[in-house]
Amino acid sequence: MATCPNGHESSWEDFCSTCGDPISESAGGGGSTGAGDAGAAEASAATGATGGGDAAKSASEIGLSCPHCSVSRTEEDVFCESCGYDFASGTLPTEEASLDPVSGALSGSTPSGSTPSATNAAAAGAAAAAAGAAAGSVTGEVAPPTTPPGDPQPSGKAPESAFKKGADGPVAPDPAGATGEATAAPDTVAVISVDRDFFERVAGGGELSFPDPDPGESRVTLVGNEILIGRRSDSRGIYPEIDLSPPMDDPAVSHRHAMLRQGADGSWTLTDLDSTNGTYLGDHTVSMAPNTEKPLPLGTPVFVGAYTKVTLEAL
Amino acid sequence: MTIFSAQVFQNEYLPDGGDTVDAVVTVSAAPGGETKARQEAVEVIVIDCSGSMKEEGGAKMEGARRGTMAAIDVIRDGVWFAVVAGTSNAWPLYPQQVGLVQSSPQTRAEAKQLVARVRPKGGTAMGKWLLAANELVSQRPGAISHCTLLTDGKNQHEKDWELDAAIANCVGKFQCDARGLGADWDVDEVRKISSALLGTCDIIPSPDQMEDEFRALTEAAMTKAVDRVALRLWAPQGANVQFVKQVAPTIEDLTPKAVQVDALMRDFPLGAWADDESRDYHIRIQIPKGNVGDERLAARVMLVVDDEQVSASLVRAVWTGDQALATRINGEVAHYTGQEELADAIATGLAAREAGDEANATVKLGRAVQLAHEAGNSETVKLLQNVVEVEDPKTGTVRLKRDVAQVDAMALDVRSTRTVRVNKK
Ligand SMILES: [Zn+2]
Ligand SMILES: [Zn+2]
Q: Which of A202, B71, B297, B416 falls 20 to 30 Å from B223 in CA-CA distance?
């Protein structure tokens, strides 16, 4: 081992491995050397001291489900992906205006904006997330696994996965014969308009006014076999195919209001998603029972919110 | 195998009392040496399936599907891969059970069939996506692991700390190239991911560019031949390492990524390398002062692969009374100092513009035009011209444009760190 002019023992022969002073006259040389002083590498030990441990990864997929609509959820979910139920506060979304069916008066928060309830929901969500991360395991409200048949849990390594599984994921069901064809060509269009008779019945005399001028008809081609009627919410990741937020703008429509589903035979059904102000099928006198799927023939009008009429037509 | 070499560019002469040493180190990898079996590789593609992907009449989701299929097409036979669908959760898209599958014509076709069925639904929680990717790559420890991540929106469905914790969990486990589709995502948020995971960040302005971009990204990932490369820097007792920055092909400050090896040595992880690439690093070190005539080693720059040293080069300091020698600035160092100032001028100029400080924005972006013009960054000049009207590039005289597309401002932001190399005569 070489010794430098300052008395350091150096693991290199050219410069001192402590102070960098040249060790002998022959030191220096070119600007770069090849390998050959491998002794230096011996000191290497601990790498990988970064990383924050595994604390943030919390257990998931132990069969939790939404207490409101029973769609499976994970512990980390703040809101139900299906109905928007807030797991922390145990409440349904209340951002939309609520119509008193008798007086037509507006209750609840304001039609647009409604930041206070959104902030509350966010705060509650943070609390839920924090609780989820802190508690190692969750007791209580453990429902039986909701994994659909034919999609078994991989045995042996279920609980610690960062993945969510189940039929309600962002993958369309395998088309019947599994013969490759991805999605059927769209064959239906939704015609959206406003209806004054409906407005007079549910909201007339209240605080909401009928759109003036009449916005006329608009058409949405229905792509896919599940079509959500509702109002967009960036904060909750709700983007309805039939979006009645501005410019359509019916403030009495819930973010997740009603679902249209197309069966394998091409026929459509309608389900009210327990919307605040209900869904009217065929005529506007009696609202549908919530969470109940009903056939929806083409041409039959559907009424939602304060004045919106939706009718399906063949494309 | 891959052979690494490093070349140091510096002016080693310091004036009497001088203590700061700048050097540019060019690291190059080339094929050669003993032939070993090719290292195992993992490719995880995470595609955003949040509800906002429905926008533009479904074009975003369709672009993402096509991009993912193009990426799948170029995954080499034998590479372990998976496709993850990201919402406010992570879903195994292919294979349908959580796991990895080896690429073959058949598995690629199966994967593409499932990608065709993906639809937009739910929210955005990128931390969960990353943890899911981490879970997959952990099944092949020792492989060269890469993740391609696509988002079109902000990380709205988890807290910032959740994303940060997820990133911390993934550091050193895999590399991640992150891409934002359209203009509704947050550059800083996505760059935070790619930067920590030693990858790149870029904007894909329009869905019809998805295919080309994803194919190119995956092809690049497939060229990586060696992983766990680090720059190991020794500096003498009493020295202060002011910074270590990658300066080509992009500027990336590695200083905060240092992992201490012993009292005088620290490692800066460089990730995976292809056996035909070259990157430049700018190092600035303050060392104890010497007397005129003294020589001292200012730094020993080593490359290590899996903790084994594969090259070493010296950064030296020689104190001189010759002012002409001591004040000369090395060409490479000058060039990259300018490139760093350029990136900085763009970042502060855009921030000022965002804050409504037009005077400051005009000055900074004007300076950026001038620097980019001088150094021959023609791509950067083009990006700047989307945001400012250039009157005279030589003096940096510009006017802010009134109607700037959000994607253009974002493209300038995200690409401001791309550098050009020195014209080596
Ligand atoms: Zn010494
Ligand atoms: Zn629910």
A: B416
Q: Domain spans of chain A?
A: 2-62, 95-148, 188-314
Kindly report, residue by residue over A147-202, the tens digit of the pLDDT. Answer: 333 334 444 444 578 898 877 788 876 654 443 334 466 788 999 999 999 998 88
Give residues 160 to 199 of A whose Cβ lies within 8 Å of B: 161-165, 169-174, 180, 182-183
Cβ distance of B296 and A20 shorter than 8 Å = yes
SS3 A56: coil
- Domain membership of residue B262 as a residue range: 2-32+227-328
Is the domain of B66 the same as that of B187? yes
User: Domain tally for chain B?
Assistant: 3
Question: Complex ipTM, two decimals?
Answer: 0.85
Indicate whether B232 belongs to any domain.
yes
Report helix, strand and coil shares of chain B as percent, to nearest 5: 35, 35, 30
pTM reported for the whole predicted model: 0.69
User: Which residue of chain B is at minimal alpha-carbon distance from A184?
Assistant: B117
Pick from A37, A151, A223: which is nearest to B58 by CB? A223
Shortest distance, CA B69 to any CA of chain A (angstroms): 13
The verdict on B101 and B196 lying in the same domain is: yes
Please name the amino acid found at residue A225. N
DSSP, residue by residue, B372-410: HHHHT-HHHHHHHHTTEEEEETTTTEEEE-SS--HHHHH
- Is the distance from CB of A315 to CB of A188 less than 8 angstroms? yes
Residue with tokens 């201490």: B260
CATH class belonging to A188-314: mainly beta
Per-residue tokens: B177:
């190239």
Judged by CB atoms closer than 8 Å, whether chains meet at A162 and B171 is answered as no
**B347 and B295 within one domain:** no
C-alpha B303/C-alpha B311 separation (Å) is 5
